[in-house]
Automatic annotation (TrEMBL):
GO terms for molecular function: rRNA (uridine-2'-O-)-methyltransferase activity. The active site is at K162. It catalyses: uridine(2552) in 23S rRNA + S-adenosyl-L-methionine = 2'-O-methyluridine(2552) in 23S rRNA + S-adenosyl-L-homocysteine + H(+). One of its GO terms (cellular component) is cytoplasm. CDD domains: AdoMet_MTases. It comes from Corallococcus aberystwythensis. Belongs to the class I-like SAM-binding methyltransferase superfamily. RNA methyltransferase RlmE family. Specifically methylates the uridine in position 2552 of 23S rRNA at the 2'-O position of the ribose in the fully assembled 50S ribosomal subunit. This is Ribosomal RNA large subunit methyltransferase E. Pfam families: FtsJ.
Length: 213
């Protein structure tokens, strides 16, 4: 894993500092520092040998951290509407998929049928500049990620989703609470100063209720 957030030097201008640091460390995106911080805060969420789904994974900064975290006996599946440059690690599989497409669930199952120890989403919509619209689009993507975690996540597993604060954010957090024993809101240090984004972290997925007979 990378150096701790407190190692990273202050004062700093997030763009310059994390951008340069990502470049120096051969990371595909500065966002790698965000997932690294989340994994350090919740060290049991992604262990060696885990199966992890990364939604909105291009260009692959999160994937680089996740690939190291799970190691060669794990699996990392990364999907995005944009192509992701292939990984040399055999346990990392990537695909171009739109999570909002009707056939997404079937295509994901064909890629790797789960179940997943962690479902992670860094998805973000193309921003329109209209606050309410962007918040709603962000929540739609996070809502889809939660649906996938509820359907394909292991009991005891982890959920992480980026969401733009505002709008129905609290309703979304409450929805995550229905599926996970503990819910935390995290704003990693590498988040740009003016950004409204936070990560909703669900810990210890509750076992699904048995189907009524
Ligand atoms: C902030 S970037 C992710 C950066 C990535 N975590 C990394 O570390 O390299 C957000 C991504 O969400 C993706 N995205 C947006 N809508 C999507 C959708 N409907 N299905 C899949 N990916 C989507 C975008 O294409 C974009 O690559």
């Amino acid at each position: 894993m990378l150096g701790t957030a407190s190692d990273m030097g202050k004062p700093y201008r997030p763009k310059d500092h994390y951008f340069q640091k990502a470049k120096q460390e051969g990371l595909r995106a500065r966002s790698a520092f965000k997932v690294d911080e989340i994994l350090k805060r919740f060290p049991t969420s992604v262990k060696k040998g885990a199966a992890v789904l990364d939604l909105g994974a291009a260009p692959g900064g999160f994937l680089q951290i996740l690939a190291d975290a799970v190691g060669m006996h794990g699996r990392v599946i990364g999907v995005d509407i944009s192509a992701i440059r292939p990984f040399s690690q055999k346990w990392v599989t990537t695909a171009v998929l739109d999570v909002l497409a009707d056939d997404f669930d079937a295509k994901l199952a064909a890629l790797y049928d789960g179940p997943y120890d962690a479902v992670i989403s860094d998805m973000a919509p193309k921003t329109s500049g209209i606050k309410g619209t962007d918040e709603a689009r962000s929540l739609r993507l996070a809502g889809k990620a939660l649906e996938v975690a509820a359907a394909r996540g292991k009991p005891g597993g982890t959920f992480v989703a980026k969401v733009f604060m505002g709008g129905d954010f609290e309703a979304f957090r409450d929805e995550v609470r229905k599926h996970f024993e503990e819910v935390k809101i995290v704003r990693p240090e590498a988040t740009r100063g003016a950004s409204m984004e936070v990560y909703v972290v669900g810990l210890r997925r509750r076992a699904p209720a048995p189907a009524a007979s």
